[in-house]
Design a protein that fits this description.
This protein is mainly α and 532 residues long. The chain has 21 helices and 7 strands. It has a 5-stranded mixed β-sheet. Strands 1-5 form a two-stranded parallel ribbon. The longest helix has 28 residues. It is globular.
Length: 532
Amino acid sequence: MKQFPYDKLLLIFQNALLVVLAVLLLLKSYTTLHWRMEHDTPLLYYAAFLMDKHGRIPYRDIFETSMPGTFAFHYVIVKLFGYSDDAFRYVDLTLLGALLIATYKFMSRFGRQAAILAALLFGLVYLAQGQTMSLQRDYIGIIPVAFALLCIPARMETPVGLNRFALVGLLFGMSVLIKPHLGIALPIVFAALLAFRWNRQKKSMPDFIKCAAVSAAALLAPLAIALIWLAADSALAPFADIVFNYLPLHSALTGAQKTIFGLDRVLYLIWGTSMLGGFGLLVLLSMLAYYHVASQAGKDEAIHISLACLALCTLAYAVYPAFAGKFWPYHYMPLVYFCSLSAGLCLYENNSQKPAVLFRVQKTILVAALAITVTVQLPIYYFISYLDLDLHAGREAHSPKNGRVDEIADWLKNNLRPGDTVQPLDWSGGSLHAMLLAKADLATRFMYDYHFYHHVSSPYIQGLRRTFISQLHDAIPRFIIAVNTNKPSVSGVDTTNEFPELSQFLYSCYSMAYEGSGYYIYERTQNCTKKP
């Protein structure tokens, strides 16, 4: 096929863009070695620490809303690699590398440039979110989904056996164990796989039922294993209690931890979903790329099926955050992943078709839109600025909670004695991360205190309050860390800032041991002793 000078110029620009993105990704990956874990990850590492060092069982001994797969993931990580920030970074980058390889493998059906772009773009957007995004549950859960895509053939003549349906079900089962609503894309991938199977095999309801049964059985296998594990450790009933009694109350909170009801909540969900987490430009680019491929693929049925699968998965994960109703940044990682794959389609080119004027115009618009999206969505100026900061400041630029975590951890290390326990009155304000660094044991089954302040008229929350106070009286922890600033707090109807029984407990048994910036550490007084 004869290439015109303009075609060569456009190809050079595309290759240059890929080289620039690859260099940026390599540099960013290197500088993240300075990162320290922050936000949610240290909380889950601390839960894994309690499991590993103190034999605690999730739900029974740890009141947490994360799913069993999340605990299993972090428990395996700490058992294999320990609790250090270096291990955290190497695990994160290794998993990212595996995800990008899977991305390239799937997207290679659309061409090498499209596959490279898709992998590079997601890697950059993920790392651009910073250390608070690293190993978030919604990100971890998308990795099995990415590998499930590899079960979809690239050619119509490829035989599709039941083993592919089983593998898709198993991989989605692993995702569902981390976040149940990640399974929203399972019917889409299943349908794509079935379309390939029925190209070589007669369509029939018995065959559909057989394929669905195989996928369902494989989907349920990891869930059954998790339930058996919980039942064996007497944690199944506490798990069901949290899922059916507490999670509905927790889900009624907004991302700003405010209680809203009725029409206000419906409008909030519609508005939050429409905002697309700030990734609207990436979604728009994806839509342009879908049109580009659909108009250029001709009669290539395999490409059309794969394209429809990507488009529907993107749509599914665009509404995915509404299930949690929080619209936090990490809830958009599945959407960002499929948008990145879709954006890779900008560089799709069907070499069997001769370039025409319309094609050149279309391709030019796409490449220009791609360059603009990369510049704005990262955004490239801040991305490069943070690269420079990481290279020159190293770990000092990433001290969790502006030094609060290390300050509390150092104090605990210098004051804890063997057998002491600590109770945080916190959520993500840094005290649990400090307790992880100091290897401090938890006094009760409650890692966080926000549970006690929303839906306070609910008999369930009142029961949690009574259980907490009872466990405090039983444990009489050596120290209580009360964080007052830079932590989420609840507001709205049926919320409160008061907990009279807790205040009375602190007044009667504790005195101030240390006052930090936005937090207090209380120590048990001499006249308060543990119950025998």
